[in-house]
């Protein structure tokens, strides 16, 4: 791969990881807000800020670690065969999300509870990757 291709695909992968992190964090903040409605005393804004400050780096770390190797395979396929279609990147992201859920929980047994969140976050990550780098796949031939 050319140096420009490596830089573009790395930026795209990081963009996809950040997109998946945002989806998961927004869902967790939504759950935190719902839990606050069930309390007698409302949740303080400090709880939300601390959930973001602690949650985002932690989620981003796990997303990057769990998606690294499967993403390399999808990126290599798209570059090798010049695949630039959203019809490739969104399902590939969803499959990577499902594989990450499988690697994290070692089974699909918990898929009914939270597995869909990994697939949805993966689909958005695929969209994020396509926006940053995937729509230019295979354009730099060396």
Descriptive overview:
This protein is an all-alpha fold and 142 residues long. It has one domain (3-136). It contains 4 helices and no strands. The chain is elongated and about 60 Å long.
Q: Work out the helicity level.
A: over 70%
Which range does the strand content fall in? Answer: under 5%
In round numbers, the mean pLDDT is 89
Shape: elongated
Which spans of ≥5 residues are poorly predicted at pLDDT below 50?
Answer: none
Structural class: mainly alpha
* Count of discrete alpha- or pi-helical segments spanning 4 or more residues: 4
User: How many beta-strand runs?
Assistant: 0
Quick structural gist:
With 142 residues, the chain is mainly α. 77% of the residues lie in helices and 0% in strands.
Supply the key terms.
mainly alpha, 142 residues, 77% helix, 4 helices
Describe the protein's topology:
Layout: H1 3-37, H2 45-80, H3 86-105, H4 115-132
